[in-house]
Amino acid sequence: MRFRDIIKDAQVRNWSYRQAVRFLVRPLVSVRRPHIVAVTGTNGKTTVCKMLDRIFRTQGYRTGCATTDGATLDGKLLDPGDNAGGNGLWRILRRARPDLLIAETSRGGILRHGIGFGRCDTAAVLNVFDDHLGEEGVDTVNDMARVKARLVPLGRSVVLNADDALVRGMESRASNGIFYYTTGEPHFDRGIFVRGDTFWIKSGRGEEALLGVREARITEGGLLDFEVQNVAAALAIVESLQDVLPVSRDALAEALAGFGRDPLENPGRHTLLRCGNALVFLLRSKNAEGAQRSARLVRLVRERYRVRRVIGLLTGTGGTRPQQIRDASRIIAGACDLVAIGAPHARFTEHRPTADLLADLASNVAIEKQLPDGNRSLDELMRDHAGRDGETLFAAFDAIDDARVDLRKFLREGTILPMGGPTG
User: Fold this and answer.
1) Is 170 left (phi over 0), alpha (psi -120 to 50) or beta?
2) DSSP state of 219
3) Handedness of CA 417, 263, 242, 58 (dihedral sign)
4) How far apart are CA 364 and CA 131, in angstroms?
5) Domain 271-416: which CATH class?
6) What's residue 253's pLDDT?
7) Cβ neighbours of 367 (radius 10 Å)
8) What b/e string do you get for 239-276 counting C-beta neighbours within 10 Å, with b at 16 or more?
9) Which of 52, 143, 180, 236 is found 20 to 30 A from 206 (Cα to Cα)?
10) How confident is the model at residue 130, as a pLDDT?
């Protein structure tokens, strides 16, 4: 075997990354000694990390943020692509010592490469869903929960989602104070909860109104319940850091009112656009739970905008196991009139051939719903199908990983619309 073939081998690559994390990243973290927030979970990690970045920058702190969308320093992009792990921390810390380092911490990074720090100020676990099962010995959601829980003992403080039983079950692993969050009434002593249309903070017996749900732009006036939960998580993390990095209520309100106004700040995550004579919906549906959420939003937009026809773009969605992919394709097909099935992103074909994945994607889509030549770009599909017999909605169910969608082009050129329907 040639050397260049050896270094392409996944096991060799993961071994080298693990050594880099151990001998380069961790020592650099120890030298720079930034405050660290680590965020893990199945859904919402990137959004919560970026929200935190906006909040602490608004307060005037210097921030570094490492996510699957890239590594940034003070909001400026250092490197695009997946930086959720030691590579992102390295890129940030070799340039500067931020006041706060925000680290998206994924299952893959924990298992393959190790965690790039030995302690953090706050460890947050958002949720655990059926995603990426059947990989690296993680076969059940309980297995997944045990992987995510590895982060908990590292936190000086811990933030847990009280609405997720698997996450709440991690409280026994916390060595210090726990902050909870919920979108309902609190059954805990300390954390964030939602009452009516307001975020509240609870500390012991005291309760204080913090912020109106509608003041957080990303919630679309409270319409997006999953974003309400993401905001609650961010607020709980902010509260957990108040003793070391205090944030004023004014800065909090300003940051959340502005977060998401620029669609490129959190691209490809549930953005509805007017593009010429058609509607384009850029969605994130990386697992069955995400597919259900996206399908609900598509039906809502269809009703509010009187859409005549929905054309869905389906690609490597739902994980890697055949049943996960079939479940996601069934959910998505049920929300569409026509479906264009495209080749999955390369990361989905590491474990299974492309032909098998395409067969799984098509298995729950009726033949009469499948558009021919599904690999055509979104621009080409719009050219051929937009404006026929009334309003057409093109729904890209995994816009971030769909090679047919020029994500940044649509975000730059399209006009953002409210999901709740036309205003005025």
Assistant:
1) alpha
2) G
3) negative
4) 19
5) alpha beta
6) 97
7) 6
8) bbbeeebebeeebbbbbbbebbeebebbbbbbbbbebe
9) 52
10) 74
> Could you tell me where the beta strands, DSSP code E, fall in 17-152?
35-40, 63-67, 70-73, 76-80, 100-104, 120-125
> What architecture is the 3-264 domain classified under in CATH?
3-Layer(aba) Sandwich (3.40)
Weakest-pLDDT range from 51-55, 86-90, 161-165: 86-90
**This prediction's pTM:** 0.90
Q: 């050896």: which residue's tokens?
A: 6
* Whether residue 109 has pLDDT greater than 80: no
How far apart, in whole angstroms, are the C-alpha atoms of residue 422 and residue 424? 7
Hey, where are the domains in the chain? 3-264, 271-416
Write down the pLDDT at residue 7: 42
Closest CA to 337 of 301, 314, 376, 310: 310
Average pLDDT over residues 331-338: 95
CA 48 from chain centre, in angstroms, equals 8
The answer to whether 314 and 397 are in contact (CB under 8 A) is yes
Type of residue found at 30: S
For residue 192, give both structure tokens: 């964030």
At residue 160, the pLDDT reads 98
In sequence order, the 6+-apart residues with CB closer than 8 A to the CB of 215 are 253, 256, 257
Nearest by Cα to 226 from 393, 42, 421:
42
